[in-house]
Amino acid sequence: MKKILFFILILLILSACANNGVTKNGYSVDNKDVNQIKIGVSNKETVINLLDFPTSIYSLNPNKWVYHSYKTKKIMFFKPQVIEQDVIIISFNNANIVENLVKYDLNDSLNIKPSNNKTHIDNREKGLVQDILDNIGSVTPGI
């Protein structure tokens, strides 16, 4: 019995080590291609031909394209650490010509600590029965 438990323990330890290494995420952009993009000259089609489609497009401004990639390193069961990060933001004007190109790397990132403050919601203090009774008569049938 002790041998079986020891064997299982060894397997668990070895499986924790199996997921080590560097992982690449996102789309890695070649600097040679980025340097070919000329502000005031290049258009969306040129950017797509050089860099492919963006990682994301701003929802409030479809003329801002973002290319994002990062590498993480994981050691055993510890939280992965970001070891490399590249963000390129390309802005276009209304004629689809490159207006601005900004590059960011890991040194430009900020460590943001989440707040422990909570938003108070009144409905959370009501019980299930009270919540159901409050909804009686508030729904109008559709026509």
Strand content: 25-35%
Largest sheet report: 5 strands, antiparallel
Q: What is the rounded distance between the termini?
A: 70 Å
Discrete helix count: 4
The average pLDDT value, as a whole number, equals: 84
Topology as a string of helices (H) and strands (E) = HEHHEEEEH
Description of the structure:
The protein has helices at 2-17, 31-35, 44-51, 128-135; strands at 21-26, 56-57, 64-74, 81-92, 98-105. The mean pLDDT is 84. It is flat, with a radius of gyration of 26 Å. It has a domain at 19-110. It contains four helices and five strands; from the N terminus they run H-E-H-H-E-E-E-E-H. The chain is of the alpha+beta class and 143 residues long. Strands 1, 2, 3, 4 and 5 form a five-stranded antiparallel beta sheet that branches. Strand 4 and strand 5 (98-105) form a beta hairpin.
Write the layout of secondary structure elements.
Layout: H1 2-17, E1 21-26, H2 31-35, H3 44-51, E2 56-57, E3 64-74, E4 81-92, E5 98-105, H4 128-135
Antiparallel strand pairs: 1-3, 2-3, 3-4, 4-5
Key structural traits:
single chain, 143 residues, alpha+beta, 5-stranded antiparallel beta sheet, flat
Quick recap:
By secondary structure, the chain is an alpha+beta fold.
